[in-house]
Amino acid sequence: PDYGEGDDIFAYQNGGNVIVRGEGELQVFDVMGRFVMSREVRGEEAFSMPAGGVYIFRLLGETLRTQKIVVK
């Protein structure tokens, strides 16, 4: 895989859900680096987070993309 920086936004909050767009394994960590969840993403998927806070979303696909999301 290409581990270059992905500039495009692949995750965002919409109401109570977080929308993730892409292909690969999504890994979610809290701001302290603790693992929260992992799931396969194929296309566009919406899911709810267990609690509000700051999360790091990492999408392992053709490229490695990382994004910080503040969940309210």
Question: How would you characterize this protein structure?
Answer:
The chain has 72 residues and is mainly β. It contains no helices and five strands. Strands 1, 2, 3, 4 and 5 form a five-stranded antiparallel sheet that branches. Strand 1 and strand 2 form a beta hairpin. It is globular, with a radius of gyration of 11 Å.
Shape: globular
Major sheet characteristics: 5 strands, antiparallel
Question: Helicity range of the residues?
Answer: under 10%
**SSE topology string:** EEEEE
Share in β-strands: over 45%
Report the radius of gyration as a whole number of Å.
Answer: 11 Å
The overall pLDDT average reads 88
Structural class: mainly beta
Span from first to last CA?
Answer: 33 Å
Low-confidence spans: 1-6
Overall strand count = 5
Count of helical stretches: 0
Topology:
Layout lengths: L10 E4 L2 E14 L4 E14 L4 E8 L3 E8 L1
Antiparallel strand pairs: 1-2, 2-3, 2-4, 4-5
Briefly characterize the structure.
The chain is mostly beta strands. The protein has strands at 11-14, 17-30, 35-48, 53-60, 64-71.
Please give a handful of descriptors for the protein shown.
single chain; 72 residues; mainly beta; 5-stranded antiparallel sheet; 0% helix; globular; disordered N terminus
